[in-house]
Design a protein that fits this description.
Number of helices: 10
Largest sheet: 5 strands, parallel
Radius of gyration: 19 Å
Number of strands: 10
CATH class of the largest domain: Alpha Beta
Strand order of the largest sheet: 1-5-4-2-3
Strand content: 5-15%
Structural class: alpha/beta
Number of domains: 2
Oligomer: single chain
Length: 270
């Protein structure tokens, strides 16, 4: 279990001096609407790229430049937030983990920016952090899995392949044997934070998942699985695979797909 992987606003407020806060909303929101005091801005579009290392990862050099520019180092604890129930912020945190930042130092603000805004003051003052020299590394135990791993898992009865897209997307086409767990089903629409632990356990159990299950996550481009990954790790799931290529790579490489939008060849229709 990653302790404090998902944290409430009061946890952040008590640790202003010991964590770095990253706002991944658009720059105009950071400047115009306001942000958590002391936060730095790294908009979501800046750390997603089709020309990076794998999938939508930005590339090691680009990642190092982004974090160096806002004064973050590998030793810093990081709290990330957005205004979209945490899915974009979770993508930032997973990216950090894949580039070697210790997952014990990565935290998702529960309830996104709105939770902070309800309880604490915000500011439009722009921070002026000193530039650092962020050192990209390799994670001690990388959660990232590739096409071949997923392909082999199709024949593994002990593995649960989980599709975190919406039900209609799943119905149109999904990996054989996959279960559908829309990432939003773990979020309370009113609070924008995670549902209570009992509700989470119930929904995950309905999907056939337990903390000792080998879970392999995919969506379309590895954005939505980021949130589910962070949530599962916070709940003590220790064997969670993150398929960065997701359905985009799977279809490109001719992986089998089943569903209403699939032709007789087993390939997704355009």
């Amino acid at each position: 279990m990653y302790e404090h992987a998902v944290v409430p606003p009061e946890w952040v407020a008590e640790r202003f001096d010991s964590v770095r806060i990253v706002d991944v909303r658009d720059a105009w929101e950071f400047d115009g609407i306001g942000h958590v005091p002391g936060a730095v801005t790294i908009p979501f579009a800046e750390f997603r790229s089709e020309s990076g290392d794998d999938g939508m990862l930005p590339g090691a050099d680009a990642w190092a430049s982004l974090l160096s520019a806002v004064g973050i180092t590998r030793d810093d604890g990081i709290v990330a937030y957005d205004d979209t129930h945490g899915v974009f912020a979770a993508r930032f945190l997973v990216t950090a983990e894949l580039y070697g930042h210790s997952p014990d130092r990565l935290h998702l603000l529960d309830g996104d920016f709105s939770a902070w805004n309800r309880a604490y003051e915000t500011t439009t003052d722009a921070p002026t952090p000193s530039e650092s020299s962020y050192a990209v590394g390799k994670p001690e135990n990388s959660p990232m899995v590739d096409y071949d791993t997923i392909r082999a898992a199709l024949e593994d009865p002990g593995a649960a392949i989980v599709d975190t897209r919406e039900a209609w997307e799943f119905a149109e086409g999904h990996l054989p044997g996959a279960v559908n767990l829309d990432w939003r089903e773990l979020v309370d629409d009113e609070t924008r934070g995670l549902k209570p632990p009992a509700a989470l356990s119930e929904r995950l159990g309905e999907a056939g998942l337990a903390p000792d299950t080998r879970v392999l996550l995919y969506c379309n481009t590895a954005r939505r699985i980021s949130h589910t990954y962070v949530v599962l790790r916070s709940l003590g799931y220790d064997d969670v695979g993150f398929y960065e290529g997701s359905l985009t790579e799977w279809v490109e490489r001719g992986g089998p797909v089943e569903g209403s939008g699939v032709g007789e060849t087993g390939e997704a229709d355009d």
